[in-house]
Amino acid sequence: MDYKTMLALALPLSLGIVGVACAIGLGKVVSSAMDATGRQPEAATKILINMATGCAFIEALTIYVLVVVFNFLGKI
Q: Which of 14, 21, 58, 75 could form a disulfide with 70 if both were Cys (CB 3.0 to 4.6 A apart)?
């Protein structure tokens, strides 16, 4: 198996691993935010803002990996 074939298999696999990890992270963030909102409903706005910021950073990680994979595969 040559280098390009190994790279063509490894890069999408790494993207899948990052996608699963980010999905788990998003699930934990949203779950914690819902628990916190249930405990303190009056702080729901602050919790929502912090949750949205955290979700944006997690999603940005996935997009960065996607761009790197496309870059390595020569699609960009």
A: 75
